């Protein structure tokens, strides 16, 4: 029923019916339909390739395909044909999230086949596909390459997804999301010598009781020889300003014992403190830099462009380069993207993607939007808190969280903010990227950033 050809034809025939009102200019969005997680983010033959969880047929989540696009500068994207469609028994209810790895000019993908069995139970298995031209992908005959049956009994078979491939000391690995039967999130490590035969290696890291029930979309990487693990926990318990979104996105620094395949975290934090940042994935570019991109939404929130029948939903965050300074992760836009934002001052109408720089000496409260429809953001010098508050938006974005998450903040001594504003989003970088807050909004009419007073 589903195929790459059918999806491509549908997109070409219908993409002109999409309403552009809230479409950003410098954030990646789908041509038509629904998009969630970034997948297979990779640098291949001089270009960034981005795949994404995609339902071309509606602006709501449904049977997942992998959309595909590429970019030279991370600012302008070219759409490519659909990479994967759910057309096999082993992925019949969706090609779920996964990742890419380049080996000798071949672009390999590993993704989750989502299967709803006849009795209604769910199986999730891992599959591989490859391409030598970066456009056409071939699913391999060995699929599925690993199933839940190969996991230890203490791990759920229905939550086994989102493999992130990497190579380490001549061996291939993937970290994969699972749920431990203790009802906590858990990342497992699988290994392979040849990318075709995979086996379970170890429980890489098991979460604690308050740290969420499934750790989706893991990513393992190293910067300056130091190990990092990203996960997207469902239902991480809220702690004052942190983890307030129903689905959070965290980064852990740690140490790995590769003999036993275990990650020992030494610290943990939310990657982004705004309302909309999930399923972050990284890749390495030609300059050996770690670049991260995330879904600029999170689950359980109203889908405004779907409700308005605009024919699309979902945007990616701005890609960010991760570096480490004084043992802290710093996020920074690549220059090729930063250059595209026009510098504006307070009270200036925002006509295109804009960047505003704010030096902080005392408490400051700013509004972004129109007089009646705006978000507030700023710095509370007494509490040492940078925040974004969505309570004054016309299109309220209250989600499934027990307490409505209108206000999000982060404790930090702030001296400088840089805010990147596109048609429907703001990304606030604090002190040149020590912390970031990312949130979306849907505001009609000409927008400005203006002061409270
Ligand atoms: C995360 C996620 C993944 C899954 C995909 C399905 O947002 O739930 O765990 O593979 O989305 O679209």
Task: Give a concise summary.
With 453 residues, this protein is mainly beta.
Describe the structure.
- This protein is mainly beta.
- It folds into 2 domains: 329 residues, Glycosyl hydrolase domain, family 43 (Tachylectin-2, Chain A, 5 Propeller), CATH 2.115.10; 110 residues, Jelly Rolls, CATH 2.60.120.560.
- The protein has 3 helices and 31 strands.
- The protein has a 5-stranded mixed β-sheet.
- Strand 7 and strand 8 form a beta hairpin.
- The longest helix is centred in the N-terminal third of the chain and has 11 residues.
- It is globular.
- The N and C termini lie far apart (59 Å).
- The mean pLDDT is 97.
- The structure holds beta-D-fructofuranose.
- Beta-D-fructofuranose binds next to strand 1, strand 5, strand 9 and strand 13.
- The site of beta-D-fructofuranose has 12 residues, from strand 1, strand 5, strand 9 and strand 13.
Distance between the termini: 59 Å
Helical content band:
under 10%
At the fold tier of CATH, the topology name of the largest domain is: Tachylectin-2, Chain A
Question: How are the strands ordered across the major sheet?
Answer: 4-3-2-1-19
Largest sheet: 5 strands, mixed
Shape: globular
The class by helix and strand makeup works out as mainly beta
The unreliable regions are: none
Q: What topology does this entry show?
A:
Elements: H1 4-14, E1 33-44, E2 47-55, E3 65-71, E4 78-84, E5 95-103, E6 106-116, E7 122-131, E8 138-139, E9 155-168, E10 171-180, E11 184-192, E12 199-206, E13 214-223, E14 226-234, E15 250-257, E16 262-270, E17 278-284, E18 290-295, H2 304-307, E19 312-313, E20 320-325, E21 328-332, H3 335-338, E22 342-343, E23 354-359, E24 364-369, E25 374-380, E26 385-389, E27 407-411, E28 416-422, E29 425-430, E30 435-440, E31 448-451
Parallel strand pairs: 1-19, 22-23
Antiparallel strand pairs: 1-2, 2-3, 3-4, 5-6, 6-7, 7-8, 9-10, 10-11, 11-12, 13-14, 14-15, 15-16, 17-18, 18-20, 20-21, 23-28, 24-25, 24-31, 25-26, 26-27, 28-29, 29-30
Bound molecules: beta-D-fructofuranose.
